[in-house]
Amino acid sequence: MLTALARLADTACVVVAQDRATQRRREPIGPGALRQVRRCIALASELRLPLVTVIDTPGAALSREAEEGGLAGEIARCLSDLLRLPSPTVSLLLGEGAGGAALALLPADRVVAAEHSWLAPLPPEGASAILHGGDISFAPELAAAQGVAVARLQEAGVVDLIVPESPDVATFSRDLVRAVSAALAEAADEPWSLRAPRRAQRYRRGQ
């Protein structure tokens, strides 16, 4: 996990992000990483700052140690903490969004997504392996059935705004910052008395 106090445009905020490269080189997200997320949520609440979460993960650790360390409980507590956080919140779906590690950072007032990002409780390859005896060749078919692409997620009400992916990294980065900043401003314009029930209702519906 990467955490920071940051400024997006003119808005100071707390940012917590999943470092995909580190996950692949070293180890996937475990309960300790999610406890770090919860400390950032608490910090945003204490400082009365908006919170931005960045989702980009191939999934949480699949190990006996992670389960015994309380992984499932930490995912649940992250979800609960995000739903109750009074600060304006924006979730940025940047790339892969696989499994509980992605869902743990999702609940927010606004969700912004990069054009080719995706989100699924179970990766299509995993679903294919489970349903077809280890064969992952059915992953594209299952991805379509699951509706993991951002266009489908927007139709379902999970994603609010899709940001086109420019081949120029600097342009794409600026576009993301503008989109997240605008989403934060929209959320901040609404009082907590309105955002709280709306956020809860949105995710209670499974959206």
TrEMBL record:
InterPro entries: Acetyl_CoA_COase_a_su (IPR001095), ClpP/crotonase-like_dom_sf (IPR029045), COA_CT_C (IPR011763)
KW Lipid metabolism (keyword) present: yes
Domain CoA carboxyltransferase C-terminal stretches: 1-190
Gene3D superfamilies for this protein: 2-enoyl-CoA Hydratase, Chain A, domain 1
Catalysis: reaction(s): N(6)-carboxybiotinyl-L-lysyl-[protein] + acetyl-CoA = N(6)-biotinyl-L-lysyl-[protein] + malonyl-CoA
First-tier enzyme category under EC: transferase
EC code(s) of this entry: 2.1.3.15
This protein's record includes keyword Manganese: no
Pathway this chain belongs to: Lipid metabolism; malonyl-CoA biosynthesis; malonyl-CoA from acetyl-CoA: step 1/1
Domain of life where this protein originates: Bacteria
UniProt KW keywords: ATP-binding, Fatty acid biosynthesis, Fatty acid metabolism, Lipid biosynthesis, Lipid metabolism, Metal-binding, Nucleotide-binding, Transferase, Zinc, Zinc-finger
Pfam families assigned to the protein according to its UniProt record, in alphabetical order: ACCA
Any coiled-coil regions, as ranges: none
Name the record gives this protein: acetyl-CoA carboxytransferase
